[in-house]
Design goal:
The complex is a heterodimer. By secondary structure, chain A is an alpha+beta fold. Chain A has 6 helices and 10 strands; from the N terminus they run βαββαββαββααβαββ. Chain B has one domain: Formate dehydrogenase/DMSO reductase fold (Up-down Bundle), CATH 1.20.1630.10. The C terminus of chain B is likely disordered. The chains are: A alpha+beta, B mainly alpha. At the A-B interface, α2 and α3 of A face α4 and α13 of B.
Chain lengths: ~180, ~325
């Protein structure tokens, strides 16, 4: 049987986010992220003055773009993309030039000082390949993130994107980002 | 707030790479200038050939040191990725450096060549076979080297300009700006070396040649910078916001003061002041030593500052700022 084509993505319902940062901690624990570096973050956007005040929390990580500029600029091919869309770094090939970090419109990558290589969110590919969801998705108490395969028409993520309005960040960079923020 | 992934080492490298490209270009051009089939700027060409390979060699060394794993730099040469400006650039840089050293070798006198090979142990026979006179190849090496020197000069700009995520860089004009700045730095460095060379003082026609060359390059650079600013102001919001880094933002002073006025307009004014009476009224060319030194020094500082401003301001610029406006 031929393998079915896959395209992993995340849908983010940022209105559900309570800024508990459990996703940030879960990611660091799962992936042994060095102290001072993060693979995901929660952007805070404040608006207005007290008492007319609002705050918006917006989780962000690597967008696993359809046309990733980090992969394009990498001189050695260390930055690469799997057929299912996950963008990864081959640590043995990375020379640490940091061109990909400069080229990422979402500042999603960090430099691992100790190993001298660039690192980033792997969408927990080691878990995904076993059929699990990424650590940030699993741990979220308010179910902000929905992980799934866009090619699978029966998936929750497919249903959300066909019935809800959403936006992607900075589409004008041409990267084709795959983090979908529900409106 | 914002981390800089590329720092001073990259700035210095971009400057040195461009400087070598400019030196080679000016030297090759001087080599080709003849009056009645006699070379009139041979000393300029020789000086340029002697200087050209060193900055790029040092710059490439710095570039390798800047890598997270410097010993893995060889991986650049076991892959070729045409979509990556850095991959193309590393090949370009290597070929250009080889050509520049070859050109230097072609300009060595017979005595200098013998002296050089006298340092090589006599048992290294293979090395001694390289002790040949290639001075007749000068013109050909220069001809082959021209496109590579232009390539290196442009590449330093393309490296930044090809990054679509950074609106400050991602315009069609950055590559040309860096190229003309590189060529102008090369002419200025050559002028500095010729004037400072006390053993055989520079003659007026040599200084005039370099001043003329520099006036042309500075003018071209100026008329790239003006459209860069105008285009940017008329461009999309992200580019406009990126430009505000030098139009009111943290890099405004260093751009307008030290770079544009001191590094571009003042040397241009000095060089025009030197040339104009000669061209328009037929007076003898001044050839003032101090003015040439001042202009050349300022051009070099300006060339360095241009790279400094672009590397740092470019990394601050991003599309994220758009969200903050809403």
């Amino acid at each position: 049987m031929a393998m079915k084509k896959k395209r992993y993505a995340l849908v983010i319902d940022s209105r559900k986010c309570i800024n508990c940062k459990a996703c940030v901690v879960a990611c660091k624990a799962e992936n042994n992220v060095p102290i001072g570096n993060f693979r995901n973050r929660i952007n805070e956007e404040r608006k207005g003055e007290y008492p007319k005040l609002s705050i918006n929390f917006e989780p962000e990580q690597c967008h696993h773009c359809a046309e990733p500029s980090c992969v394009r600029v990498c001189p050695t091919g260390a930055s690469w993309q799997r057929k299912d869309g996950i963008v990864l770094v081959n640590y043995d090939e990375c020379i640490g030039c940091r061109y990909c970090m400069v080229a990422c419109p979402y500042d999603a990558r960090y430099f691992n000082e100790e190993q001298g290589v660039v690192d980033k969110c792997t969408l927990c590919s080691h878990r995904v390949d076993k059929g699990d969801t990424p650590a940030c998705v699993e741990t979220c108490p308010s179910k902000v993130r929905v992980f799934g395969d866009l090619e699978d028409t029966s998936s929750r993520i497919h249903e959300l994107l066909s019935t809800r309005r959403y936006r992607v960040k900075e589409p004008q960079t041409g990267n084709g980002p795959q983090l979908y923020y529900l409106l | 707030m914002h981390e800089f992934n590329w720092g001073l080492l990259i700035v210095i490298y971009l400057f040195l790479g461009g400087l070598s490209a400019g030196l080679f270009f000016a030297a090759g051009l001087a080599d080709y200038m003849t009056v009645d089939d006699k070379p009139v700027y041979a000393r300029v060409a020789r000086m340029g050939a002697f200087l050209a390979p060193w900055p790029v060699a040092i710059g490439s060394g710095l570039l390798i040191l800047d890598l997270g794993n410097w010993y893995r730099f060889y991986k650049l040469f076991i892959h070729f990725r045409w979509e990556s400006p850095m991959s193309i650039g590393s090949y370009l840089l290597t070929i250009f450096t080889v050509i520049a050293f070859l050109y230097l070798f072609a300009w060595l006198t017979a005595d200098e060549r013998q002296w050089l090979f006298s340092k090589v142990p006599a048992t290294w026979k293979q090395v001694h076979r390289l002790n040949v006179d290639i001075s007749s190849w000068r013109g050909k090496i220069a001809m082959v080297g021209f496109p590579f020197s232009i390539g290196v000069g442009i590449y330093t700009g393309v490296l930044l300009g090809a990054v679509s995520a950074r609106p400050f860089w991602n315009t069609n004009l950055v590559a040309q700006m860096f190229l003309f700045s590189a060529l102008s730095s090369g002419a200025a460095a050559l002028m500095l070396a010729m004037v400072l060379n006390k053993k055989s003082p520079a003659e007026k026609h040599e200084i005039k040649f370099l001043v003329t060359l520099d006036v042309v390059f500075i003018s071209l650079e100026l008329f790239i910078i003006l459209p860069y600013l105008i285009h940017g102001q008329l461009s999309s919001l992200a580019v406009k916001q990126a430009l505000s880094l030098i139009l009111g933002g943290p890099y405004t002073f260093v751009f307008w003061g030290p770079f544009l006025v001191m590094g571009l307009l003042v040397p241009l004014a000095i060089e025009v002041y030197e040339l104009a009476p000669n061209i328009f009224k037929g007076h003898e060319f001044h050839g003032s030593r101090n003015l040439a030194l001042t202009a050349a020094g300022l051009v070099l500082i300006g060339g360095f500052l241009l790279r400094y401003i672009f590397v740092y301001a470019g990394q601050v610029s991003s599309f994220h700022q758009m969200g903050m406006l809403n």
